[in-house]
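User: Could you check the structure of this?
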Amino acid sequence: MLFWVIAAILTLGASLAVLLPLAGGTKGASAAGDHDLEVYRDQLSELDRDMARGLIQPGEAEEARAEIGRRILRLGSDGQASTRAPRPSRTARLVATAAVLAVPLVSWGLYGALGSPDLPSQPLAERLAKNPADSSVDELVARAEAHLAANPSDGKGWDVLAPIYLRLQRYTDAVTAYRNAIRLDGDSAVRQAGLGEAIANAAGGIVSADAQAAFEAALKLDPANAKANFYLAMGLAQEGKKAEAAAAWQKMLGQLAPDSPWRSAVQQALAETAEPPAAAGKPANGPDAQAVEAAQQMSPQDRQAMIETMVAGLDDRLKQNPRDEEGWMRLIRSYVVLGKADQARDALGRAVAVFGADSEQARKFTAFAASLGVTATE
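Assistant: Sure, the predicted structure tokens are below.
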């Protein structure tokens, strides 16, 4: 209601500002001319008094009187011209008045039909300060990207956007955002650990040399950083150093708080590395150091193709050595990392079939897959 009152007052004021000059005359010009004539008359009287007192010579007085007379004549001519100035006709005034009044009436009518007069007001500052919980992810990202496009040197903005990219699995964008945040706002354990995680995920879960460097930089700033410790241990496991990886995870487990969200991940990782494969055959290990190094020299497309080839090779080895428990869990996780939920679910089903649906291994596989968001088919 307040909006409509204010709008009506403003519209009325604007309309009157246009209508009043149309209704008025030229009284201002006439009043100004009368004032000037009175001044010249006073000057003539003062001139006569000065000549009577002998303060001015008759010749000079005559010249001054003649000049004042010429000014009076010019004033009379201008006054007549202004008096003769044409006034707007009544028809013109009516047309102008109708046009001025039509603008607010038409605009109000269109707003009532096409606008949202009942929508509560929401100032720009309030929209920008909107609680992220009330905004969609797309809105948040679009708002952040628009801001950073206009302010590329805003380190805090990059710092906010980087973990959002990470959650959206836009890993390459996350790497760029973390690097910009570090370049502009300096090192921090959180930023370096996030950078390492983004690099590792961009490489399909491989803890590469670049990712390892970022995690080590995070630990220099915060030796207790859980993310950096976890991924460095994962890197050891990927290099085949399972004993060292298990020791690192065990040490980490002893330092974590009881309610830490990393406890379940560490326990799961320990479960994967602690139990040797049931069969005597060669276990299905992950990529070696040379493969990791080679992956860093590839384009994203080639790297993805290499990772998929490695996963396919792991799948083939499990067909030859199906009793490798660790291999099955690595295969399930690999398919999840690649975004292939159907293949991950199929791998879970085959693993359960190998050991039997009622076996301890089957329960272990099912729980592990569930932690990754994969459930067995009915």
